[in-house]
Amino acid sequence: MKLSIIFRKEYWESDDYSEWHVEELKKSALKKGFQVEIVDISEINEVRSFDFLGDVIFWRSSSLDKSWEKNTLYNIIDEKKLFSRALLKFPYLSYKFFQQKVVSVKTGLNFIPTYVFKTKKQFLDFISKSDILDYPLIAKPNWGGEGKGVVKLEKSEDLKKLSLPISEYVFQKFILNKGDFRILILGGRVLGIMKRKGQAGNIVNNFSRGGGVWEVKDKREIKVLSEISIEIAKLFGMDFCGVDIIKSKEDGRYYFMEVNSAPQWMGFQKATGLKVADLIVEFMKKNFFNLNFN
Prior knowledge:
Elements: E1 2-7, H1 9-14, H2 16-31, E2 35-40, E3 56-59, H3 67-79, E4 81-83, H4 86-89, H5 96-106, E5 114-115, H6 120-129, E6 137-141, E7 151-153, E8 169-173, E9 180-186, E10 189-197, E11 212-215, H7 219-236, E12 240-247, E13 254-260, H8 266-272, H9 276-288
Helix pairs in contact: 2-9
């Protein structure tokens, strides 16, 4: 039994969290009797045969940055079993605007109205002439995660805080909250739910940005969050994902924030005590190798 974990070396070199997750998967797979190979996606760009790859492929990336990456994935699934094919069905899955749009059209869930603008002038004109979007706002990079680059805008002058071109952001109403929730889904079922709360003065709640984490144990809240998350995972056809949901202090409703096809689980593991990598490997062993685990 051989498992190949495909990732991007550029992310590994710039993010200790990415390296930790890949190594956790590797250790768990070796413990379960797999042969394991870690492969940088750039190394297989021009490859015509994928015989050297494992029987099952774990795509440890939340996006397809380049057109050839999608072609590579299509070629791989002709020969191999691919864990989580959501990116093939939804190539724009990693974009927050796309996620919110699909959820708003395809479900009855509470979504966050999300806007994009090509220029600063277009943004300012919309804000001044429309009552749909007003300050305070949250500006998030349309692509990316871990709470990186998220900025709260209180006034037009705050646009200078943006580090990327305005066209690369999504803009949403700021939702007053007491933290948000990360729900991990594997094989259509909820593994667990953690709540995240950012440090004082921090507008993001991510563990990787210093947020505190703890397990959600309230049965009513678990039921509500589980139902939302399972529907999201099913909508996008995701074997494994992390669904982020926020509860508004103003109206008490739960709003879909985003879904990640390559979620981090270091904070989740700390909060719940669950060995996520072990659960992923067991799931693959059962569903892709059709074997019973010891």
